[in-house]
UniProtKB/TrEMBL annotation:
Key word Signal present: yes
Keyword Signal: yes
Keywords tagged on the record: Signal
InterPro entries tied to this protein: Glyco_hydro/deAcase_b/a-brl (IPR011330), NODB_dom (IPR002509), Polysacc_deacetylase_ArnD (IPR050248), Spore_PdaA (IPR014235)
Organism encoding this protein: Bacillus lumedeiriae
Protein name, per record: Delta-lactam-biosynthetic de-N-acetylase
Domain NodB homology residue range list: 59-240
Origin organism lineage: Bacteria, Bacillati, Bacillota, Bacilli, Bacillales
Pfam families: Polysacc_deac_1
Chain ranges passing through the membrane: none
Leader sequence segment: 1-16
Gene this chain is encoded by: pdaA
NCBIfam families hit by this protein: spore_pdaA
PANTHER family for this protein: GLYCOSYL TRANSFERASE-RELATED (PTHR10587), PEPTIDOGLYCAN-N-ACETYLMURAMIC ACID DEACETYLASE PDAA (PTHR10587:SF78)
Length: 254
C-alpha cells in the first residue's frame, strides 16, 4: 500500500492598508531643539521613506515653498535665493503651472527642485486610487513640458493630510513624501502682519535639520527672507537641497 500524501496550503490574511486620514502636526521646535512628531508618526514615515527633518547633528536647513497660486511675490523670493545662493524646493499645483509657467521655468532654470502638490489640491485620502495617480501624473507631465525637469521625486500632500494608503501609493509612483518641521500661519493674504512676524516665527523655531515650509503668497515671507537667510548663515547654518538630504540617507543606509 502506498501512503497517502497530503499537502496543505495555508493562506495568510493580507492586512488592509489603513486610509485613516492623518493631519500633520508636531511639537514645535524651541531653543534650537528639534521639532518632534512622536514615535508613532516617525515610524510610519520611516517605513515609507518619508521625512520631515534632517539630522540634529548638522546645522543644515532645507527651504521649501508651497505654491498653490501666484500672488506677486515669488519673483522676489527667487531673486533672494539667487543672490544668497540658496537652493529650494517649490511644491506646485496644476493651477500654478497653468497660471505662472514663466516662474516655474525660472525655478528650474535657477537650479531649484519642483515638487508635486497635486493638480487640484484635494485631500488625497478622499480620492480613489485612480484619481490619486491622475492628480500626481498631471503635475509631473505639465512640469516636464514646461521645464527640463523630466522626473519628479517629491510630494507634499495638500493640506498636510495623508494616510498609510497614500504614503504607500505615492512611494509606488516614485515619490517621497516631504513634510516639515517648521511652519506657521503665513498664508492669509488679507492678514499679513509685516516682515518681523515672519522673521520672528522662523527664528524662534529654527533648529538643526529643519525643513522649513513657507508659502510664496505671503508678502511677509518675501520681505523677511533676505534677513532670515543672512542671519541664519551668521549662526553657522547652511542651506542644502532635498536631493542632498536623500544622498545622505542613502550613504547612511548603505
Amino acid at each position: 500500500m502506498f501512503a497517502a500524501l497530503f499537502f496543505f496550503s495555508f493562506t495568510y490574511p493580507v492586512m488592509a492598508v489603513s486610509n485613516q486620514a492623518i493631519h500633520w502636526g508636531l511639537k514645535k521646535a524651541s531653543n534650537g531643539q528639534q521639532a518632534e512628531a512622536g514615535p508613532k508618526l516617525d515610524k510610519l514615515l520611516d517605513e515609507h521613506g518619508a521625512f520631515y527633518k534632517g539630522s540634529a547633528k548638522e546645522k543644515v536647513l532645507y527651504l521649501t515653498f508651497d505654491n498653490g497660486y501666484e500672488n506677486g511675490y515669488t519673483a522676489s523670493i527667487l531673486d533672494t535665493l539667487k543672490k544668497e545662493k540658496v537652493p529650494a524646493a517649490f511644491f506646485v499645483t496644476g493651477h500654478y503651472l497653468e497660471s505662472a509657467p514663466d516662474l516655474v521655468k525660472r525655478m528650474n532654470k535657477e537650479g531649484h527642485i519642483i515638487g508635486n502638490h497635486s493638480w487640484h489640491h484635494p485631500d488625497l485620502t478622499q480620492v480613489s486610487d485612480e484619481k490619486l495617480k491622475e492628480e500626481l501624473a498631471r503635475v509631473k507631465k505639465e512640469t516636464a513640458q514646461l521645464t527640463k525637469q523630466k522626473d519628479m521625486k517629491y510630494l507634499r500632500p495638500p493640506r498636510g493630510i495623508f494616510s498609510e494608503r497614500t504614503l504607500k501609493m505615492a512611494k509606488e509612483e516614485g515619490y517621497t513624501h516631504v513634510m516639515w518641521s517648521l511652519a506657521f500661519v503665513d498664508w492669509y493674504t488679507n492678514n499679513q502682519k509685516g516682515w518681523q512676524y515672519s522673521y520672528d516665527n522662523i527664528m524662534k523655531q529654527i533648529h538643526p535639520g529643519a525643513i522649513l515650509l513657507l508659502h510664496t503668497v505671503s508678502k511677509d515671507n518675501a520681505e523677511a527672507l533676505p534677513k532670515v537667510i543672512k542671519d541664519l548663515k551668521k549662526q553657522g547654518y547652511r542651506f542644502e537641497s532635498l536631493d542632498d538630504y536623500r544622498k545622505k540617507q542613502k550613504r547612511i543606509s548603505a
